[in-house]
Amino acid sequence: MDEKKDIVSVEHLEAPELRDAEHASSKPKYKANTQLDDAARLLEEAGGHIEYSMAEMKKVLRRIDFYVCFPMCITYWIQQMDKSSVSYAAVFDLQKHTNLHGTQYSWLSSVVYCAQLVCQPISAYALIVFPVKYWVMFNMTMWSICTICTTACKSFVPLLICRMLLGAFEATIMPSFILITQMWWLRREQSYRTIAYQIANSCAAIFGPLMSYGIGRATERSSTILEYQAIFLFIGAVSLAFVPIVWWLLPNSPTTARFLERNGGRDRLIAIHRLKENNTGTKTSKFKWAQVWETYRDPKTYMWAAMWFCAACPSGGIGAFGGLITKGFGFSTLNTILMQIPTGCIGIVGLLTSIYITNRIKMRWPVLAVVTIFPIAGGVALTQVPRSKPGGLMAAYYVAYVFAVIQPLLVSWCNLNASGTTKRVVTTATMFGALTIGNIVGPQVYFAREAPSYLTGLYVDIACWCILLILIVTMGFYLKYLNRKQEARRVALGFPAGLKDMSIMSHKEAEEYKQELNAKLRAAGMDPDAFNENAFEDLTDFENPHFMSLNVVRPKIGIIYYSMYGHTGALAEAAIRGAEAAGAEVRPYNFQETLPADLVKKIGGGSSLEPKHPIITPEALVELDGFIIGAPTRFGRMPAQVNAFLDSTGAQYAQGSLIGKFAGTFTSSNTQHGGQETTHLNILPYFVHQGIIYVPNGYQFKATGDTATVHGSSPYGASTVAGGDGSFKPSALELEAAEGQGKYFANVVGAYLTGKAAIGK
Ligand SMILES: Cc1cc2nc3c(=O)[nH]c(=O)nc-3n(C[C@H](O)[C@H](O)[C@H](O)COP(=O)(O)O)c2cc1C
After folding, report:
1. Domains within the chain, CATH numbers bracketed
2. What local confidence, expressed as pLDDT, does residue 636 receive?
3. Which of 125, 189, 239, 723 could form a disulfide bond with 728, CB atoms 3.0-4.6 angstroms apart?
4. CA–CA separation, 101 vs 275, rounded Å?
5. 272 C-alpha to center of ligand 1: Å?
6. Which of 160, 153, 151, 166 is nearest to 105 (CA)?
């Protein structure tokens, strides 16, 4: 590699306010967790430029892995041990000693997840207020104390309370780890770090039984403490002992981490600068309801949620009852505990093998599908092998335990799937919801009366895995189909075809691929900077390409209308739907009513007196990339209310701030010849004077060319014929034209802006 190539980046760094105008206008609400802003400030202070080689970057990355990923693994391991302590205790007759009956034992597992479900949003909120390290440490201390306190529990209710509190404190893990991961690693590095702490989970399945075995033996004949109590006490004490170690290692943020002080603070700048790539495409930190709506309109959201449920339900069940199932094969208590150890090894070996194969074949879903076949086979065997054959049953149990590999693989598959800040947050929250519900339901289908075979539980688990398998394959093909569609769009826009998924590439592969792609883009006369890496991640065969919008610029489209009787309003709603379907950020507005209210009422009007949307202002108009004006006819022309607003944009005319924006029109008139075309024409001079690009519909919608019935919608734009007395409602054809206009208009503006960004103009 020559010198020049080896330089990772030489970039001008923007101040946050330049990066994100919307962000700049809103003052930071909270004091803590402003790391991103601090990071940008630090870089700015360093002169805005930084050069470093790949070798330097890797060195910093290794240190980050040690100081951040390692303590995260410890924490994850500890929380898993604390959570599983109840299943180890169960093997030592916890139920008998504490008089548990019916589903009470199941509830000791389910309640942890119930508490997590409730507390996860609270914990996520707390993360905005408290520095992440302190929050994690506080919770780790508290859940360790909870585990220790469980020692003293001698009946169901105290046990339940301790477990519930454990769940509440452990709820912090997921949101905190997501935040920490995003704070330290590039998106393509994140899945491997996620997998690292998932492996720590499997380590718990090795150390937990080992510890329990040792404790069991040591306290077998003790008269002061029962084995199950000693397990809670010991595991709780071990977790508490790790608190100072994690405290010492784990930093709060890249801007304050002590381990980055080396090289006169250069390591810190590199660590921060690397992350700049993650911010590309993050336009705003504002919560957007449109994206929430979009998330729940996306069939993938439901498919991912169903997959999470199907993976978590058996995991919750076997997690709690694994020990009891194997004990039922006829092993002694201590042997049962030892028999759990290989499950941890299965998790680790299975995960590493799956990742290796994924990296080799550069596809995720086929690996996940094959992995899912194992637990199905193991589960079926568990129900079929005669109870007299403990060896066969144990083998079947181990095969079924490959299920432990599913969740980590699923995380790294759907992790990068959604883009757009709000959509990402909502998608993640939905996945967590499904995961937690699965974990709650799982133990509930293991009935005490069915011990030791727990057939219902096993049948439910097998059904879940079968559905999961179907969903994985369906999702694999669905993403492929979406990829193909997006590729066609990309090619139509002049971008190169055949983008690859960088998230499963090594640093070297990713760097080489970036160089190759940049060369292709330059050869096609495009600016590579306009194409960011994260966009590729969302576009490939293995990841969800739905959010092409990361590199296709999302236009801000205004639908601005005046409507006295509701007809123009109905067309406007259709246009909004159309523009939203095209992926635009739609901002609906109304024109200010200028007539006195009593007059409007006198002539039978009303809707203009109660505007549904904010009133348009000249400043809001300038914020838009394009807008469609909805103006009903007044004597063949636009209404005075619309004209009054247009006349108030003199300052914008003087500054030329509307030049290059896009506009369209739609209208409504009582009669067929009362202004269906002239109303549009009457607005056109305004566009011409302001330098606005006019987008007419032409004859693309059925209503325009159709003469079978009387209806509106001319080549100028959508319209409706309201009837002589205004009693008609916009027809299906007219609404179709309005919706089509919104979609077409947004696509035209979006393609223009995307092309503009790509050529850097
Ligand atoms: C003062 C005034 C003038 C109008 N002039 C015309 C006209 O020239 N031709 C016509 O067909 N309808 C005319 N109309 C009817 C309106 O265009 C009709 O009420 C409107 O399209 C309904 O739209 P809306 O329900 O969105 O308010 C006029 C209405 C008013 C109040």
Report:
1. 288-482 (1.20.1250.20), 493-544 (no CATH), 556-758 (3.40.50.360)
2. 97
3. 723
4. 53
5. 60
6. 160
Cα(318)–Cα(331) distance, integer angstroms: 18
Q: To 10 degrees, the CA torsion angle through 594, 599, 602, 608?
A: 10
CA distance 412 to 504: 10
Bin 554: left if φ > 0, else alpha if -120 < ψ < 50, else beta: beta
Q: What is the pLDDT, as a whole number, of residue 416?
A: 54
Segments in 385-503 forming alpha helices (H): 390-400, 406-414, 421-444, 455-492
**Residues 511-542: pLDDT tens digits?**
777 777 777 777 766 666 555 443 333 222 22
Q: Answer whether 414 contacts ligand 1 (Cβ < 6 A).
A: no
How far is ligand 1, taken at its centre, from the CA of residue 722, in Å? 8
**Atom in ligand 1 nearest the alpha carbon of residue 720:** 21
The structure's pTM equals: 0.60
The CB of 639 under 6 Å from ligand 1? The reply is no
Of 647, 723, 721, the C-alpha closest to 679 is 721
Is the confidence at residue 575, as pLDDT, over 70?
yes
Distance in Å, CA 46 to ligand 1 centroid: 63
Please calculate the CA angle 427-431-432 and round it to the nearest 5 degrees: 120
Start-to-end CA span in the chain (Å): 32
Q: Which residue has the higher pLDDT, 166 or 36?
A: 166
Q: Which has the closest alpha carbon to 20: 246, 283, 376, 344?
A: 283
- What tokens does 469 get? 């398998």
Tell me: the pLDDT tens digits for 145-160?
A: 999 999 999 999 999 9
